[in-house]
Amino acid sequence: MIRIAVFLFITIFSASVLGFTVNAQSDLKDHDTYQPLDIDAERFELRQRDGQAVFSGTVKVTQGKLILSSDSLTVFYASSSKNTNPSIDRLDARGGVKLFSSTEQVVSDWSVYDVNRRLVTFGGNVILTQGDNTLNGERLELDLVSGLTKLDGESGKNNGRVSGTFNVPENDKSNQ
Question: Band of the pLDDT at 9, cuts 50, 70, 90?
């Protein structure tokens, strides 16, 4: 078991040091994007002509296991005369963005949740935390279908590399 953990650590560490994209499995795999979006904020502004709803002031969005918070959130939607409920296409979060699930946390400057593609993209000073492990980069994509997480470094910053700290569990000597 320790060999597998060490191999995984070396593989991920080597990828981050060499500047490759780091991939990790997300707890949000198979997240149901058709669940209701519960939004809580201090202020709401409807731009019906533009198909936008703007929330500001300590915004919190909850959809099943996914929790997203930010300073502001713009919801892009389309409505038709046949359907009374608008179709939400995208959520753009800005300022102090944080995504929480039961096993991970992402912190960034901004994010775009493309509901139709079931993809959440984060940018600007991205920090991904899973358990005791932390990764830093500039742009992160979280695929809600496959659970695949991709993190890229920023050119000109840290030599364009992803950096991280990985904690290797202690060896249980009783199993040897």
Answer: very low
Q: Does 21 have pLDDT greater than 50?
A: no
pTM exceeding 0.85: no
DSSP secondary structure string for all residues of 40-107: E-SEEEEEGGGTEEEEEEEEEEEETTEEEEEEEEEEEEE--SS-SS-EEEEEEEEEEEEEE-SSEEEE
User: Which residues make Cβ contacts (< 8 Å) with residue 60, sequence separation at least 6?
Assistant: 39, 40, 41, 67, 68, 69
- Residues shown for the chain: 176
